[in-house]
From TrEMBL:
Domain 4Fe-4S Mo/W bis-MGD-type: 51-108
Any Pfam family matching the protein: Molydop_binding
Keyword Iron assigned: yes
A molecular-function term among this protein's GO annotations: oxidoreductase activity
Family: Belongs to the prokaryotic molybdopterin-containing oxidoreductase family.
Domain of life from the UniProt record: Bacteria
Keywords: 4Fe-4S, Iron, Iron-sulfur, Metal-binding, Molybdenum, Oxidoreductase, Signal
InterPro entries assigned: Asp_de-COase-like_dom_sf, MoPterin_dinucl-bd_dom, Mopterin_OxRdtase, Mopterin_OxRdtase_4Fe-4S_dom, Prok_Mopterin_Oxidored, TAT_signal, TAT_signal_bac_arc
Protein name as it appears in the record: Dehydrogenase
Length: 897
């Protein structure tokens, strides 16, 4: 079936054409942004003359939200450009921003509400879409939702992913909470193990690198520049830093542009933990370099640890103890008479032998010599020594810097860890050890180092920061004990630290609830922006799960794999059309001119909506009001947007549109009556954050950095007690629970695993990374022909499987060969080979994730290889502590017949 014919392009709102139509559209106002009163005489894009530039922003990556302007001629958006007034991107823009025009006019979109007429469901089964009215579509959905609410709200499963249009995930979560189902799964993050260490060390969901002041940057499986291709402040900050002379050391199986500003250390996949442990070894056992003042004052390194690895505590108050060298005795960590604290040595407290955490840390890396690490990483011992010495010297321990009149420690070094290192087996601990190395030289939360991306959300326990997410979501597993049956389908209780419960567990629990101690079935599935068929490692299991659920609906943009299983689809605006607010500040990387930048961007559709589509949040709100959740939703929405106690708080008794909520939010932020009308003209509003709030160093005096990961250890201890008490084992880890408990260690520790165990048969490693034109699939990048063209014309042709020349020659393979790659886990994928010296000797590179199989998507979406089929979450293959699957696997390769 031809995709363009699947849904007739007849629309509820007529697509306006011609000058008269534009005038009419402008008169409507509510639908069409008036934009800047700038009549153009010539097009800067070489297109038609005349027209109007309408303010917008991009937001199709998660690094930043570039200010954009969309040129509209006769009601048609014809060009996108960077907004030169925007303080972040200053007029620049990457291909993803420019390509959004293609999404707007994408003929493969859903164009009207549809219901399936074919009850059979499958990835290659034509749903037999039939266009229906909005009233009929919403009637079917709301009735099903009411029925499941009345039967058992747990039988509803929400599934959230980044999706094509970057939905407001938290907004969905509000509704989930109100509805009363615990079943909220993330399809965006089966590989997101990267959030735990930032929570521990920086009070933040993602950390960002202060390259404005950094001089020596080590990237560990993290793309910082060209591959992420952020076009705005972050990219400029990197360029400025390199001009200043910042050295970048890329530790990765795949080289990238950043390495041209320093060096590339091609590492054996899975060896990252050994690399950072050996750095700690060189610092503490060879160079004897560490920032003692920082460790004493700002971390739990001086806390006294018993032989059983628990804190030694004051018998009266229960508070952790430290050793006061001046007083020659133990005191509580917050004693006002504290003198100099011991970092080393052995003492006796409460009749028990104890040591400061720092001493334990030092002992834990004693055997992690560069020679030991060289075997596991493929990086020469002398290179590890040299890099560590350079890092230690550039850390300038003891130096200070004054920024905006505020005096702070200056530590211009950073190990920046990313998905490539964090999402392998023991990856969560790898990130922790990398940040531990940063902390050893005092480079956490200070200028030049790794800092927080979002504001401090301090949860302090025993004077030490601990993971906010863990506190909110996983505290019950720690404090409230274990319950059978499970409270949810996600296996959280077995993965007490899992931020993003793996999809495979969720899918497995839908198919076979009993195996996961669940005593009910899922009746209604509501995936939003979620595509587990592409994000998960087991497509067959996803198919089985979606086939089992009686009713699935979505608000969707394109005819992807998930929509193939839907019973009703409500068509959604494209990314450029959505009415949206996003922060102005930048996340992953920041420079001197934007570090204190904060504010909000606003956008709405620059043209009359092209098809009969909707704003997702409006559907959620309408449904909530229909189901009688209005007062609750309004109260929670006020809380989410920080409107409580202000004149802009929502009235519990009223029914709102999303536009009205945005209006209240904007006015609450910008003040002086600056609402949607003002933002339509200006596009964004900014203000400056005090410099003390940009660096956590100040706040660390309240909550110390947990270089000794006591809390993880305690979670593991309680998990073990609960599992043993109830006689249960984690599905997939039956008979191996000892390995699960061993992951909850408070110290650096190397554990062998399927990736590090040698294999003669599977003699290569498969690795994967994000590429510029395909970041998380946001903004409908997968079926955007402009972006696909960009990829194919890149020198490296990122749709191909990349192999080192020597590895190719050994196997008789050549550039352009069609090959089949088989995984140690049983999966396989196919693609075309690219021979390149940018790959580590024993690794195969799979840039991004391609190979959609949904038949009604733009055929361009089928190009590329499907990487995740090489991975596995089965039979104990996922990392038990985090719930993540390993992004790398051992594989073998052969030429396709
Ligand atoms: S994708 Fe990101 S970097 Fe590119 S234009 Fe959009 S917001 Fe800017």
């Amino acid at each position: 079936m031809d995709a363009a014919k699947v849904v007739p392009a007849t629309t509820r709102r007529t697509f306006l054409k011609g000058g008269a139509a534009l005038a009419a559209a402008l008169a409507i106002g509510a639908h069409v942004a008036p934009g800047k009163a700038e009549a153009l005489t010539e097009s800067e894009g070489g297109g038609k003359e005349g027209g109007t530039w309408v303010t917008s922003f991009c937001g199709t990556c998660i690094w930043t939200n570039c200010g954009l302007e969309v040129k509209v001629i006769d009601g048609v958006a014809v060009e996108v450009r960077g907004n030169k007034d925007h303080p972040s991107n200053k007029g620049t823009m990457c291909p993803r921003g420019a390509a959004q025009l293609m999404n707007l006019y994408n003929p493969y979109r859903f164009k009207a509400p549809v219901k399936r007429t074919n009850p059979e469901k499958g990835l290659d089964v034509d749903p037999g879409w039939q266009e229906i009215s909005w009233d009929e579509a919403k009637g079917i959905i709301f009735e099903k939702m009411a029925a499941v609410r009345d039967t058992d709200p747990r039988r509803l499963m929400f599934m959230y992913g980044f999706g094509d249009t970057l939905h407001e995930g938290p907004f969905t979560k509000l509704f989930t909470g109100i509805f009363g189902t615990p079943n909220y799964a993330m399809s965006a993050g089966p590989l997101c193990e990267v959030h735990h260490a930032p929570q521990l060390f920086n009070n933040t969901f993602v950390d960002r690198i202060d390259v404005g002041y950094c001089n020596y940057l080590i990237t560990l499986g993290r793309n910082m520049g060209a591959q992420a291709a952020f076009a705005s402040g972050p990219a400029r900050a990197m360029a400025d830093a390199w001009k200043r002379g910042m050295k970048t050391v890329v530790v990765d199986p795949h080289s990238n542009v950043e390495a041209s500003h320093g060096e590339w250390l091609p590492i054996t996949p899975g060896g990252d933990m050994a690399f950072v442990m050996s750095m700690a070894n060189v610092l503490l056992h060879e160079l004897d370099v560490y920032d003692a003042v920082y460790l004493r004052d700002r971390t739990n390194a001086p806390y006294l640890i018993q032989d059983d690895l628990d804190y030694a505590r004051d018998a009266g108050t229960g508070k952790p103890l430290v050793w006061d060298v001046s007083a020659g005795g133990a005191k509580t960590y917050d004693d006002e008479t504290l003198g100099e604290l011991a970092l080393t040595g052995s003492y006796t407290v409460n009749g028990q032998p104890v040591e400061p955490a720092f001493e334990k840390i030092k002992a834990s890396v004693k055997d992690a010599t560069p020679e030991w690490a060289a075997e596991k990483t493929g990086i020469a011992a002398e290179t590890i020594r040299r890099i560590t010495a350079e890092f230690a010297e550039e850390a300038r321990i003891g130096s200070i810097i004054v920024i905006d009149g505020v005096e702070l420690p200056y530590r211009p070094v950073c190990i920046a860890t990313g998905r490539g290192a964090a999402n392998t087996m023991q990856g969560m601990r790898t990130y922790y050890v990398a940040d531990l190395v940063n902390a050893l030289v005092g480079a956490i939360g200070v200028p030049g180092s790794v800092i927080h991306a979002d504001g401090p959300k301090f949860v302090v326990e025993d004077g030490v920061i601990h993971d906010v997410l863990m506190a909110e979501t996983f505290l019950p597993a720690y404090d409230a004990g274990f319950s059978i049956p499970f409270k949810d389908l996600t296996g959280k209780q077995f993965s007490a630290l899992a931020k993003f419960p793996i999809l495979t567990t969720t899918m497995g629990a839908i198919v076979d609830p009993q195996k996961y101690f669940v005593d009910y079935d899922i009746d209604v599935m509501f995936p939003i922006g979620a595509n587990p068929f592409m994000a998960d490692s087991s497509r067959d299991l996803c198919v089985a799960a979606f086939q089992k659920v009686p009713f699935t609906w979505t608000v969707g943009y394109n005819m992807d794999e998930t929509s193939m299983f839907c019973d009703v689809v409500l068509p959604e605006h494209s990314s450029l059309e959505r009415q949206q607010i996003r922060p102005v500040d930048e996340t992953m990387t920041v420079g001197r001119d934007t570090i204190a930048l904060a504010g909000v961007n606003y956008k709405e559709s620059p043209v009359e909506h092209v098809y009969d589509t909707c704003q997702y949040e409006d559907i959620i709100m309408e449904m909530a009001y229909y189901l009688g959740y209005g007062p609750k939703l309004n109260a929670m929405t006020s809380g989410f947007f920080k409107l409580v106690g202000t004149e802009f708080a929502l009235d519990p008794a009223k029914e709102y549109t999303y536009a009205e909520i945005i209006e209240n939010y904007l006015q609450s932020i910008a003040g002086n009556g600056k609402g949607i009308d003002w933002f339509r003209e200006h596009g964004f509003y900014t203000y400056k954050v005090p410099i003390e709030e940009c660096y956590d160093y100040v706040a660390q005096s309240v909550g110390r950095v947990p270089v000794y990961n006591w809390r993880d250890f305690m979670v593991g201890r309680h998990l073990k007690a609960n599992c043993e008490k109830w006689g249960v084992e984690q599905p997939g880890w039956e008979g191996r629970m000892g390995e699960v408990y061993a992951e909850y260690t408070p110290l650096p520790e190397w554990h062998d695993n399927f990736l590090t165990d040698p294999s003669d048969e599977f003699d290569l490693f498969a690795v994967n990374w994000k590429i510029s034109p395909r970041i998380l699939g946001l903004g409908g990048q997968d079926e955007n022909p402009w972006l696909r063209e960009v990829v194919e014309n890149l020198e490296f042709d990122d749709l191909r499987i990349q192999i080192n020349p020597a590895a190719a020659e050994e196997r008789g393979l050549r550039d352009g060969d069609r090959v089949i790659v088989e995984s140690q886990h049983g999966g396989s994928t196919e693609g075309v080979l690219k021979v390149t010296g940018l790959m580590q000797r024993n690794s195969l590179g799979f840039p991004a994730q391609g190979g959609h199989v949904a038949p009604f998507m733009n055929p361009t979406a089928r190009r590329g290889t499907t990487y995740n089929q090489l991975l596995s979450a089965d039979d104990g293959k996922y990392f038990p502590e985090s719930g993540s699957i390993s992004i790398a696997a051992r594989v073998k390769i052969r030429k396709a017949e």
